[in-house]
Every structure is written in C-alpha cells, then in structure tokens.
C-alpha cells in the first residue's frame, strides 16, 4: 500500500519570502506520479504542480517548483516570492496505474496549512 | 466552463438518518471519483466511476454507502443509516477519459457532513 507523509501540519512565511513544504512517500511501484494540490480557505482544491517519476528534471510552474528525490522518496514543494494568495492548505498526493483496478485513485498526505504573513 | 459542483455544501443529520450527496462533474468528463476527509486525517479514496460503471470501489467503507451514476452524468452518494464516524468532508473529482493520469482530476468544493 502507498503512503504519503507530510510532517509539517502548519507553516508560516513572510510575504515575498521563500518556503519549502516537505512530503515523503512510500511505494513499491516504479512508475508513478506525484502532485501538490492547494486548497485556499473555503475554495476548491486545485492542482499546483505534478511530477512524473520517470523524469529526472524537477517540475517548475512559475513561482512553484519541486525537489524530487526518487531514491529518498521525497517530493518537496518550494514557493518563491510568497504572496498573500498562497495562503492555503497544501496536499501532497501520489498515484500509480493500478492495472487490476484500472483506476488512478489519489493517495493524499494529511496536508500542511500555510499562512503567508503580510 | 463550469467546474465540478457538489450539493449540499453542508449537511447536518442525526445518527440513523439517511443523507444523499450529489456531484455534477465537468461536462464531458467520464471519470468521476469520490473521496472523503475525516477530521484530522488524510483525504481517502472511496470509489471511481468510468461513465456509469463502477471501475474501482475498493475504498468504500461498508455497505451503508451506496454510489450511483445513472446515465454517466451526475453521481450520488447515499449514506444509510448514517453513523457518527461518517462525519467529514466528501469530495468529488472528475477527469477526462484517455491517457490516464495526465488528465488532471478537478475537484469540487466538497460537502461537509456532520452526523450528530
């Protein structure tokens, strides 16, 4: 069974500063995908960034980037130039193609509540 | 384009009662997922529809939960009878059918269920 661990329940960062959210996972799969989702207060969860395990290059989306360490099973999210709108719950998630089920169900961590302070 | 919608946004019921949650996926999305987050715990997968068929229901906790997706459009999740441990936020997500995971799952706002 796959597990995803986010060890930081809450974090805060000053506006314009950089913050890193941690995520580790455990799996026996070789081909899998990792995601960071963001859920702002009272709003829907949206995808921030995704990483395919077979790609060595770390994914980047504007101010968001990941540090993917496959051997260590680590997938951290770095937010640069933090903005007030980045205040949200951040979820790390994992999926692999489960051929028996034919489903791409997501396995989530417990989440990290990030507060950006003006 | 309308996103995934869920109804109601919040439901408060007594133990033993029945509640039905509804999810309307993005138009054209054949994949529909249900997830649940119990307070303080991870978001957990419940089941996955492809069109009107249940592709994977391995996450359904017990037979008090019944999900349907008639006609392959909206889906309902019925809890009967509700127990205290069913309290939590129920999320629905949808994605396109095709090359699998590269098709992002789009989430609804969730239904917060409180069982008293």
In summary, what is this structure?
With 118 residues, chain A is mainly beta. In chain A, 0% of the residues lie in helices and 49% in strands.
List the helices and strands of chain A in order.
EEEEEEEEEEEE
Low-pLDDT windows of residues of chain B: none
Q: How would you classify the helix and strand content of chain B by structural class?
A: mainly beta
Q: How would you characterize the largest beta sheet of chain A? A: 6 strands, mixed
Overall structural class of chain A, as computed from helix and strand content, comes to mainly beta
Number of DSSP helical runs of chain A: 0
- Strand segment count of chain A: 12
Q: Could you report the average pLDDT of chain B, rounded to the nearest whole number?
A: 92
Helix content of chain B: under 10%
Oligomer: heterodimer
SSE topology:
The complex is a heterodimer of chains A (118) and B (116).
Chain A: E1 3-5, E2 10-14, E3 19-21, E4 24-26, E5 33-39, E6 46-52, E7 60-61, E8 64-69, E9 74-79, E10 88-95, E11 107-108, E12 112-117
Parallel strand pairs in A: 2-12
Antiparallel strand pairs in A: 1-4, 3-9, 5-6, 5-10, 7-8, 8-9, 10-11, 10-12
Chain B: E1 5-7, E2 10-13, E3 19-24, E4 31-37, E5 43-50, E6 53-56, E7 65-68, E8 75-79, E9 88-95, E10 106-107, E11 111-115
Parallel strand pairs in B: 2-11
Antiparallel strand pairs in B: 1-3, 3-8, 4-5, 4-9, 5-6, 7-8, 9-10, 9-11
Structural overview:
The complex is a heterodimer of chains A (118) and B (116). In chain A, 0% of the residues lie in helices and 49% in strands. With 118 residues, chain A is mainly beta. Chain B has 116 residues and is mostly beta strands. In chain B, a hairpin with a 5-residue loop joins strand 4 and strand 5. Chain A binds chain B through residues 4, 33, 37, 43-47, 50, 91, 95, 97-98, 101-111, and chain B through 3-4, 31, 33, 35, 40-45, 48, 50, 55-56, 58-59, 91, 95, 100-101, 104-105, 107-110.
């Amino acid at each position: 069974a796959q597990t995803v661990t986010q060890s930081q329940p809450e974090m805060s960062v000053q506006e314009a500063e950089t913050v890193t959210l941690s995520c580790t996972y455990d799996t026996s799969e070789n081909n899998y995908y990792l995601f960071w989702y963001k859920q702002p207060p009272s709003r829907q969860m949206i995808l921030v960034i995704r990483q395919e395990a077979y790609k060595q290059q770390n994914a980047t989306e504007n101010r968001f980037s990941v540090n993917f360490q496959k051997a260590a099973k680590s997938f951290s999210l770095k937010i640069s130039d933090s903005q007030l709108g980045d205040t949200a719950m951040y979820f790390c998630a994992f999926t692999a193609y489960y051929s028996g089920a034919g489903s791409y169900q997501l396995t989530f961590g417990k989440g990290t509540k990030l507060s950006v302070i003006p | 384009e309308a996103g995934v919608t869920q109804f109601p946004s919040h439901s408060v019921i007594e133990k033993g009662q029945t509640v039905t949650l509804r999810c309307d996926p993005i138009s054209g999305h054949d994949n529909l997922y249900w997830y649940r987050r119990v307070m303080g715990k991870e978001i957990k997968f419940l089941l996955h529809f492809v069109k009107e068929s249940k592709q994977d229901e391995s996450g359904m906790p017990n037979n008090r939960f019944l999900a349907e997706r008639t006609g392959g459009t909206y889906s309902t999740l019925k809890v009967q009878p509700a127990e205290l441990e069913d309290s939590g936020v129920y999320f629905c997500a949808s994605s396109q059918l095709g090359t699998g995971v590269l098709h992002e799952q789009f989430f609804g706002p969730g239904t917060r269920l409180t069982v008293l």
